[in-house]
Amino acid sequence: MQPTLFRSIDLSTSDNAWTALFQAFWPAYRSWFVDKKGTQINHKELALAEQQLEHHMPELMPIYRKLVRLTGNDPVAAQFLTLYRPPAYLINCSQAVLQTEEPMLIRNYDLSPELSENTVTHSNWLGRKVIATNECLWGADDGMNDTGLALSLTFGGSQQVGDGFGIPLIMRYILQTCTTVPQTIAVLKRIPSHMAYNVTAIDAAGDFATIMVGIEGNIHVTRERTITNHQQQVVWSQQAQFSKTIERKQFLDEFLQQPTCTPETMTAAFLQAPLRSTQYDKSFGTVYTAVYQPQSGRMRYVWPDREWSHSFDDFKDGDISVQLLPALLSTQTSENTYADTHADHVTGVMRDILENMLQHITPALLPNPQASIQLSEALQVQNYEWIQFANDFARIWTKADGQQNPVNDLPRQPAQQIDVESVKASKAFHSKPKRIALVFH
Protein backbone atom coordinates (compact mmCIF):
# COMPACT_ATOMS: atom_id res chain seq x y z
CA MET A 1 0.00 0.00 0.00
CA GLN A 2 1.49 3.30 -1.11
CA PRO A 3 1.72 6.24 1.32
CA THR A 4 -1.28 8.58 1.25
CA LEU A 5 -0.75 12.27 0.58
CA PHE A 6 -2.84 14.70 2.63
CA ARG A 7 -3.02 18.35 1.58
CA SER A 8 -3.90 21.63 3.26
CA ILE A 9 -5.14 24.42 0.98
CA ASP A 10 -5.97 27.99 1.98
CA LEU A 11 -8.87 28.94 -0.29
CA SER A 12 -8.97 32.47 1.10
CA THR A 13 -5.75 33.56 -0.60
CA SER A 14 -6.94 33.61 -4.23
CA ASP A 15 -9.32 32.00 -6.70
CA ASN A 16 -6.38 30.05 -8.07
CA ALA A 17 -6.37 27.87 -4.96
CA TRP A 18 -9.87 26.48 -5.59
CA THR A 19 -9.20 26.26 -9.33
CA ALA A 20 -6.19 24.04 -8.63
CA LEU A 21 -8.31 21.86 -6.35
CA PHE A 22 -11.00 21.61 -9.03
CA GLN A 23 -8.52 20.64 -11.73
CA ALA A 24 -7.06 17.92 -9.51
CA PHE A 25 -10.32 16.25 -8.53
CA TRP A 26 -12.88 17.11 -11.20
CA PRO A 27 -11.91 14.51 -13.85
CA ALA A 28 -12.70 11.63 -11.49
CA TYR A 29 -15.81 13.30 -10.09
CA ARG A 30 -17.07 14.02 -13.60
CA SER A 31 -16.56 10.42 -14.71
CA TRP A 32 -18.48 9.15 -11.67
CA PHE A 33 -21.25 11.74 -11.97
CA VAL A 34 -21.88 11.26 -15.69
CA ASP A 35 -21.75 7.48 -15.33
CA LYS A 36 -24.38 7.53 -12.58
CA LYS A 37 -26.59 10.16 -14.20
CA GLY A 38 -26.45 8.45 -17.58
CA THR A 39 -26.15 11.67 -19.58
CA GLN A 40 -23.67 14.48 -20.11
CA ILE A 41 -26.10 17.19 -19.01
CA ASN A 42 -29.83 17.58 -18.51
CA HIS A 43 -30.65 21.29 -18.64
CA LYS A 44 -34.03 20.80 -16.96
CA GLU A 45 -32.37 18.99 -14.06
CA LEU A 46 -29.72 21.71 -13.82
CA ALA A 47 -32.38 24.43 -13.71
CA LEU A 48 -34.30 22.54 -11.01
CA ALA A 49 -31.14 21.93 -8.99
CA GLU A 50 -30.17 25.61 -9.05
CA GLN A 51 -33.73 26.57 -8.14
CA GLN A 52 -33.67 24.21 -5.15
CA LEU A 53 -30.25 25.46 -4.06
CA GLU A 54 -31.42 29.08 -4.15
CA HIS A 55 -34.61 28.18 -2.28
CA HIS A 56 -32.99 26.18 0.53
CA MET A 57 -29.53 27.78 0.80
CA PRO A 58 -29.73 31.25 -0.76
CA GLU A 59 -26.67 32.47 1.14
CA LEU A 60 -24.51 30.04 -0.84
CA MET A 61 -25.59 31.29 -4.27
CA PRO A 62 -22.83 33.95 -4.61
CA ILE A 63 -20.22 31.29 -3.81
CA TYR A 64 -21.87 28.78 -6.15
CA ARG A 65 -21.96 31.22 -9.08
CA LYS A 66 -18.34 32.17 -8.52
CA LEU A 67 -17.22 28.53 -8.46
CA VAL A 68 -19.18 27.77 -11.63
CA ARG A 69 -17.36 30.63 -13.36
CA LEU A 70 -14.05 29.16 -12.18
CA THR A 71 -14.97 25.87 -13.89
CA GLY A 72 -15.29 27.72 -17.20
CA ASN A 73 -19.10 27.60 -16.88
CA ASP A 74 -19.05 23.84 -17.39
CA PRO A 75 -22.75 22.79 -17.17
CA VAL A 76 -21.89 19.32 -15.83
CA ALA A 77 -19.76 20.87 -13.10
CA ALA A 78 -22.54 23.36 -12.39
CA GLN A 79 -25.05 20.57 -11.81
CA PHE A 80 -22.57 18.59 -9.73
CA LEU A 81 -21.81 21.58 -7.50
CA THR A 82 -25.48 21.96 -6.54
CA LEU A 83 -25.24 18.50 -4.92
CA TYR A 84 -28.98 18.19 -5.50
CA ARG A 85 -30.14 14.59 -6.00
CA PRO A 86 -26.58 13.25 -6.23
CA PRO A 87 -25.89 9.54 -6.72
CA ALA A 88 -25.88 7.44 -3.56
CA TYR A 89 -22.67 7.24 -1.54
CA LEU A 90 -21.72 6.29 1.99
CA ILE A 91 -18.89 6.36 4.51
CA ASN A 92 -18.34 4.41 7.73
CA CYS A 93 -17.24 6.52 10.69
CA SER A 94 -17.28 6.88 14.48
CA GLN A 95 -17.48 10.12 16.45
CA ALA A 96 -17.81 11.32 20.03
CA VAL A 97 -18.18 14.49 22.08
CA LEU A 98 -15.91 14.90 25.09
CA GLN A 99 -17.18 17.39 27.67
CA THR A 100 -13.96 18.61 29.20
CA GLU A 101 -12.86 22.12 30.17
CA GLU A 102 -12.76 22.79 26.44
CA PRO A 103 -15.33 20.59 24.64
CA MET A 104 -13.89 18.38 21.93
CA LEU A 105 -15.33 16.59 18.92
CA ILE A 106 -13.35 13.50 17.89
CA ARG A 107 -14.05 11.40 14.83
CA ASN A 108 -12.65 8.61 12.69
CA TYR A 109 -13.20 8.90 8.95
CA ASP A 110 -13.42 5.37 7.57
CA LEU A 111 -13.28 4.73 3.85
CA SER A 112 -10.47 4.08 1.39
CA PRO A 113 -7.82 6.79 1.00
CA GLU A 114 -8.21 6.35 -2.76
CA LEU A 115 -11.89 7.32 -2.53
CA SER A 116 -11.51 10.59 -0.62
CA GLU A 117 -9.99 13.99 -1.30
CA ASN A 118 -7.66 13.84 1.73
CA THR A 119 -7.69 17.63 1.79
CA VAL A 120 -8.26 20.11 4.62
CA THR A 121 -9.22 23.61 3.52
CA HIS A 122 -9.37 27.04 5.09
CA SER A 123 -11.89 29.46 3.59
CA ASN A 124 -13.29 32.89 4.32
CA TRP A 125 -16.46 32.85 2.24
CA LEU A 126 -19.21 35.28 3.25
CA GLY A 127 -16.92 36.69 5.93
CA ARG A 128 -17.00 33.44 7.92
CA LYS A 129 -13.75 31.54 8.41
CA VAL A 130 -14.08 27.76 8.13
CA ILE A 131 -11.57 24.91 8.43
CA ALA A 132 -12.99 21.68 7.04
CA THR A 133 -12.18 18.34 5.51
CA ASN A 134 -13.14 18.95 1.90
CA GLU A 135 -15.70 16.79 0.10
CA CYS A 136 -17.34 17.12 -3.33
CA LEU A 137 -15.14 20.13 -4.18
CA TRP A 138 -16.78 22.58 -1.77
CA GLY A 139 -18.66 20.50 0.79
CA ALA A 140 -17.41 19.20 4.13
CA ASP A 141 -17.21 15.87 5.97
CA ASP A 142 -16.24 17.59 9.21
CA GLY A 143 -15.17 21.08 10.16
CA MET A 144 -15.43 24.13 12.41
CA ASN A 145 -16.02 27.85 11.97
CA ASP A 146 -14.54 30.85 13.73
CA THR A 147 -17.57 31.24 16.03
CA GLY A 148 -16.77 27.96 17.80
CA LEU A 149 -19.21 25.63 16.02
CA ALA A 150 -17.86 22.21 15.00
CA LEU A 151 -19.59 19.44 13.03
CA SER A 152 -18.93 15.88 11.97
CA LEU A 153 -20.99 13.30 10.12
CA THR A 154 -21.36 9.54 9.86
CA PHE A 155 -23.40 7.38 7.51
CA GLY A 156 -26.85 6.64 8.98
CA GLY A 157 -27.09 3.01 7.93
CA SER A 158 -29.89 3.06 5.34
CA GLN A 159 -29.76 2.34 1.60
CA GLN A 160 -32.86 4.44 0.95
CA VAL A 161 -32.38 7.45 -1.34
CA GLY A 162 -34.79 10.37 -1.64
CA ASP A 163 -35.04 13.90 -2.99
CA GLY A 164 -32.62 16.26 -1.34
CA PHE A 165 -29.05 17.49 -1.17
CA GLY A 166 -25.83 15.64 -0.55
CA ILE A 167 -24.97 16.02 3.13
CA PRO A 168 -21.49 17.55 2.49
CA LEU A 169 -23.10 20.69 1.06
CA ILE A 170 -25.55 20.92 3.97
CA MET A 171 -22.55 20.66 6.30
CA ARG A 172 -20.87 23.50 4.40
CA TYR A 173 -24.01 25.61 4.64
CA ILE A 174 -24.23 25.11 8.41
CA LEU A 175 -20.60 26.07 8.91
CA GLN A 176 -21.08 29.20 6.77
CA THR A 177 -24.32 30.40 8.36
CA CYS A 178 -24.74 28.95 11.88
CA THR A 179 -23.11 29.69 15.22
CA THR A 180 -24.98 27.44 17.66
CA VAL A 181 -26.32 23.91 18.01
CA PRO A 182 -30.00 25.05 17.96
CA GLN A 183 -29.38 26.86 14.66
CA THR A 184 -27.76 23.70 13.29
CA ILE A 185 -30.80 21.64 14.26
CA ALA A 186 -33.12 24.15 12.60
CA VAL A 187 -31.18 23.91 9.32
CA LEU A 188 -31.23 20.11 9.34
CA LYS A 189 -34.99 20.19 9.90
CA ARG A 190 -35.46 22.58 7.00
CA ILE A 191 -33.09 21.29 4.30
CA PRO A 192 -33.78 17.79 2.92
CA SER A 193 -30.92 15.27 2.76
CA HIS A 194 -30.94 12.66 0.02
CA MET A 195 -29.70 9.90 2.36
CA ALA A 196 -29.56 9.09 6.07
CA TYR A 197 -26.66 10.53 8.07
CA ASN A 198 -25.81 11.36 11.66
CA VAL A 199 -24.50 14.86 12.37
CA THR A 200 -22.85 15.66 15.70
CA ALA A 201 -22.46 19.34 16.58
CA ILE A 202 -20.84 21.25 19.44
CA ASP A 203 -20.69 25.01 19.91
CA ALA A 204 -18.71 27.60 21.85
CA ALA A 205 -21.15 27.52 24.76
CA GLY A 206 -20.54 23.80 25.27
CA ASP A 207 -23.93 22.76 23.92
CA PHE A 208 -24.01 19.62 21.80
CA ALA A 209 -26.40 17.33 19.96
CA THR A 210 -26.36 14.37 17.61
CA ILE A 211 -28.99 14.71 14.92
CA MET A 212 -30.12 11.56 13.13
CA VAL A 213 -30.96 12.84 9.67
CA GLY A 214 -33.38 10.84 7.56
CA ILE A 215 -34.30 11.46 3.95
CA GLU A 216 -36.34 14.46 2.85
CA GLY A 217 -36.25 16.40 6.12
CA ASN A 218 -37.04 13.67 8.66
CA ILE A 219 -34.74 14.07 11.67
CA HIS A 220 -34.45 12.83 15.25
CA VAL A 221 -32.57 15.08 17.70
CA THR A 222 -30.67 13.35 20.52
CA ARG A 223 -28.20 14.11 23.29
CA GLU A 224 -26.07 11.16 22.26
CA ARG A 225 -22.39 11.85 22.84
CA THR A 226 -21.37 8.99 20.56
CA ILE A 227 -22.60 7.74 17.20
CA THR A 228 -21.47 5.27 14.57
CA ASN A 229 -23.33 3.96 11.49
CA HIS A 230 -26.91 3.34 12.54
CA GLN A 231 -29.70 5.39 14.02
CA GLN A 232 -32.48 4.35 16.38
CA GLN A 233 -32.34 0.81 15.05
CA VAL A 234 -30.39 -1.18 12.48
CA VAL A 235 -32.19 -1.27 9.12
CA TRP A 236 -29.38 -2.60 6.91
CA SER A 237 -28.15 -5.69 8.72
CA GLN A 238 -25.43 -6.65 6.23
CA GLN A 239 -23.78 -3.24 6.44
CA ALA A 240 -24.14 -3.21 10.23
CA GLN A 241 -22.40 -6.57 10.54
CA PHE A 242 -19.66 -5.57 8.13
CA SER A 243 -18.93 -2.22 9.81
CA LYS A 244 -19.50 -3.48 13.39
CA THR A 245 -21.51 -0.35 14.06
CA ILE A 246 -23.21 -1.77 17.18
CA GLU A 247 -19.92 -2.94 18.68
CA ARG A 248 -18.22 0.41 18.04
CA LYS A 249 -21.11 2.37 19.55
CA GLN A 250 -21.13 0.17 22.65
CA PHE A 251 -17.37 0.56 23.04
CA LEU A 252 -17.59 4.35 22.85
CA ASP A 253 -20.49 4.54 25.31
CA GLU A 254 -18.64 2.40 27.83
CA PHE A 255 -15.36 4.26 27.35
CA LEU A 256 -16.98 7.63 28.08
CA GLN A 257 -18.20 6.31 31.44
CA GLN A 258 -14.73 5.30 32.60
CA PRO A 259 -12.99 7.57 35.14
CA THR A 260 -9.84 7.27 33.03
CA CYS A 261 -11.53 8.89 30.02
CA THR A 262 -9.53 12.02 29.18
CA PRO A 263 -8.81 13.84 25.90
CA GLU A 264 -5.57 11.87 25.66
CA THR A 265 -7.03 8.44 26.37
CA MET A 266 -10.05 9.05 24.14
CA THR A 267 -7.84 10.08 21.24
CA ALA A 268 -5.70 6.99 21.81
CA ALA A 269 -8.83 4.82 21.79
CA PHE A 270 -9.78 6.14 18.35
CA LEU A 271 -6.39 4.96 17.09
CA GLN A 272 -7.02 1.34 18.10
CA ALA A 273 -9.52 -1.40 17.40
CA PRO A 274 -12.47 -1.59 17.45
CA LEU A 275 -12.68 2.07 16.38
CA ARG A 276 -9.71 2.07 14.04
CA SER A 277 -10.17 -0.16 11.00
CA THR A 278 -7.57 -1.41 8.54
CA GLN A 279 -9.93 -2.88 5.92
CA TYR A 280 -8.81 -0.43 3.25
CA ASP A 281 -9.37 -2.96 0.48
CA LYS A 282 -13.06 -3.04 1.45
CA SER A 283 -13.34 0.78 1.66
CA PHE A 284 -13.51 0.55 5.43
CA GLY A 285 -10.12 1.70 6.63
CA THR A 286 -9.53 4.64 8.94
CA VAL A 287 -8.16 7.41 6.74
CA TYR A 288 -7.69 9.87 9.60
CA THR A 289 -8.74 10.70 13.13
CA ALA A 290 -9.81 14.34 13.52
CA VAL A 291 -9.83 16.19 16.85
CA TYR A 292 -11.68 19.53 16.93
CA GLN A 293 -11.30 22.11 19.70
CA PRO A 294 -13.53 24.86 18.31
CA GLN A 295 -13.35 27.23 21.29
CA SER A 296 -9.64 27.75 20.65
CA GLY A 297 -9.99 27.43 16.87
CA ARG A 298 -7.71 24.41 16.61
CA MET A 299 -8.00 21.03 14.94
CA ARG A 300 -5.61 18.21 14.17
CA TYR A 301 -5.44 15.04 12.17
CA VAL A 302 -4.01 12.16 14.18
CA TRP A 303 -2.49 8.88 13.05
CA PRO A 304 -0.73 6.25 15.16
CA ASP A 305 2.70 7.71 14.43
CA ARG A 306 2.10 11.42 13.80
CA GLU A 307 -0.17 14.45 14.06
CA TRP A 308 -0.94 17.36 11.75
CA SER A 309 -2.33 20.51 13.36
CA HIS A 310 -4.19 23.49 11.90
CA SER A 311 -5.73 26.61 13.37
CA PHE A 312 -7.39 29.83 12.30
CA ASP A 313 -4.40 31.77 13.62
CA ASP A 314 -1.80 29.77 11.73
CA PHE A 315 -3.20 27.90 8.72
CA LYS A 316 -0.66 27.14 6.01
CA ASP A 317 -0.68 25.43 2.65
CA GLY A 318 1.21 22.17 2.79
CA ASP A 319 1.09 18.42 2.59
CA ILE A 320 2.03 15.37 4.61
CA SER A 321 2.65 11.79 3.51
CA VAL A 322 1.22 9.10 5.78
CA GLN A 323 1.60 5.32 5.60
CA LEU A 324 -1.78 3.99 6.69
CA LEU A 325 -0.63 0.77 8.32
CA PRO A 326 -2.21 -1.37 11.03
CA ALA A 327 -1.66 0.19 14.44
CA LEU A 328 0.74 -2.50 15.69
CA LEU A 329 3.10 -2.27 12.72
CA SER A 330 5.77 0.40 12.42
CA THR A 331 5.53 2.87 9.57
CA GLN A 332 9.23 2.27 9.02
CA THR A 333 8.59 -1.14 7.45
CA SER A 334 8.38 -1.64 3.72
CA GLU A 335 5.48 -0.31 1.68
CA ASN A 336 4.33 -3.90 1.13
CA THR A 337 3.79 -4.56 4.84
CA TYR A 338 0.07 -3.89 4.77
CA ALA A 339 -0.47 -6.09 1.75
CA ASP A 340 1.59 -8.81 3.42
CA THR A 341 -0.65 -8.88 6.48
CA HIS A 342 -3.87 -9.01 4.48
CA ALA A 343 -2.98 -11.25 1.55
CA ASP A 344 -4.12 -14.86 1.17
CA HIS A 345 -0.51 -16.04 1.54
CA VAL A 346 2.00 -15.63 4.36
CA THR A 347 4.71 -13.36 2.97
CA GLY A 348 7.21 -10.66 3.84
CA VAL A 349 7.35 -9.20 7.32
CA MET A 350 4.64 -11.49 8.73
CA ARG A 351 6.65 -14.56 7.69
CA ASP A 352 9.63 -13.16 9.61
CA ILE A 353 7.50 -12.47 12.69
CA LEU A 354 6.05 -15.99 12.74
CA GLU A 355 9.43 -17.63 12.24
CA ASN A 356 10.88 -15.58 15.08
CA MET A 357 7.95 -16.55 17.31
CA LEU A 358 8.48 -20.27 16.67
CA GLN A 359 12.18 -19.97 17.48
CA HIS A 360 11.30 -18.70 20.96
CA ILE A 361 8.92 -21.56 21.81
CA THR A 362 10.58 -24.35 23.82
CA PRO A 363 9.86 -27.62 21.92
CA ALA A 364 9.72 -29.65 25.15
CA LEU A 365 6.68 -27.69 26.26
CA LEU A 366 4.72 -28.46 23.10
CA PRO A 367 2.29 -31.39 22.87
CA ASN A 368 3.47 -32.02 19.30
CA PRO A 369 7.07 -30.75 18.76
CA GLN A 370 7.27 -32.44 15.35
CA ALA A 371 4.37 -30.31 14.13
CA SER A 372 6.33 -27.23 15.17
CA ILE A 373 9.27 -28.32 13.01
CA GLN A 374 6.93 -29.00 10.10
CA LEU A 375 5.36 -25.57 10.51
CA SER A 376 8.78 -23.89 10.39
CA GLU A 377 9.50 -25.72 7.15
CA ALA A 378 6.08 -24.85 5.71
CA LEU A 379 6.72 -21.15 6.28
CA GLN A 380 9.46 -21.38 3.65
CA VAL A 381 6.98 -22.44 0.97
CA GLN A 382 6.30 -19.58 -1.43
CA ASN A 383 2.50 -19.96 -1.68
CA TYR A 384 1.82 -20.96 1.93
CA GLU A 385 -1.74 -19.82 2.75
CA TRP A 386 -2.93 -18.23 5.98
CA ILE A 387 -5.72 -20.78 6.36
CA GLN A 388 -3.24 -23.64 6.08
CA PHE A 389 -1.05 -21.90 8.65
CA ALA A 390 -4.00 -21.83 11.07
CA ASN A 391 -4.50 -25.58 10.67
CA ASP A 392 -0.78 -26.35 11.04
CA PHE A 393 -0.48 -24.10 14.09
CA ALA A 394 -3.43 -25.87 15.73
CA ARG A 395 -1.67 -29.24 15.30
CA ILE A 396 1.24 -28.02 17.44
CA TRP A 397 -1.04 -28.05 20.46
CA THR A 398 -2.55 -31.52 19.89
CA LYS A 399 -0.55 -34.70 20.49
CA ALA A 400 -0.49 -37.03 17.52
CA ASP A 401 -1.60 -39.99 19.71
CA GLY A 402 -4.44 -37.98 21.24
CA GLN A 403 -2.90 -38.11 24.74
CA GLN A 404 -3.17 -35.30 27.24
CA ASN A 405 -0.55 -32.56 27.26
CA PRO A 406 1.94 -33.55 30.01
CA VAL A 407 2.71 -29.91 30.80
CA ASN A 408 -0.93 -29.04 31.49
CA ASP A 409 -3.21 -31.20 33.63
CA LEU A 410 -6.33 -29.79 31.99
CA PRO A 411 -7.71 -31.87 29.11
CA ARG A 412 -7.49 -30.27 25.68
CA GLN A 413 -10.19 -30.32 23.04
CA PRO A 414 -9.16 -31.86 19.71
CA ALA A 415 -7.97 -29.22 17.27
CA GLN A 416 -10.65 -28.33 14.75
CA GLN A 417 -9.75 -28.01 11.09
CA ILE A 418 -10.78 -24.74 9.46
CA ASP A 419 -13.20 -25.03 6.58
CA VAL A 420 -11.38 -23.13 3.84
CA GLU A 421 -14.43 -22.74 1.61
CA SER A 422 -16.57 -21.42 4.48
CA VAL A 423 -13.99 -18.77 5.29
CA LYS A 424 -13.77 -17.67 1.67
CA ALA A 425 -17.57 -17.51 1.45
CA SER A 426 -17.76 -15.32 4.54
CA LYS A 427 -15.25 -12.90 2.97
CA ALA A 428 -17.36 -12.66 -0.17
CA PHE A 429 -20.45 -11.86 1.90
CA HIS A 430 -19.21 -8.35 2.70
CA SER A 431 -19.54 -6.51 -0.57
CA LYS A 432 -17.52 -3.35 -1.00
CA PRO A 433 -19.58 -0.22 -0.28
CA LYS A 434 -20.09 1.82 -3.43
CA ARG A 435 -18.90 5.39 -3.59
CA ILE A 436 -16.94 7.76 -5.82
CA ALA A 437 -14.31 5.92 -7.84
CA LEU A 438 -11.44 8.33 -7.28
CA VAL A 439 -7.84 7.26 -7.59
CA PHE A 440 -5.23 9.95 -6.96
CA HIS A 441 -2.23 8.06 -5.61
Automatic annotation (TrEMBL):
Gene3D superfamilies for the chain: Penicillin V Acylase, Chain A (3.60.60.10)
Pfam families: AAT (PF03417)
Listed InterPro entries: C45_proenzyme-like, Ntn_hydrolases_N, Peptidase_C45_hydrolase
Domain Peptidase C45 hydrolase positions: 100-307
Database matches in SUPFAM superfamilies: N-terminal nucleophile aminohydrolases (Ntn hydrolases) (SSF56235)
Name this polypeptide is given: Peptidase C45 hydrolase domain-containing protein
Species assigned in the record: Ephemeroptericola cinctiostellae
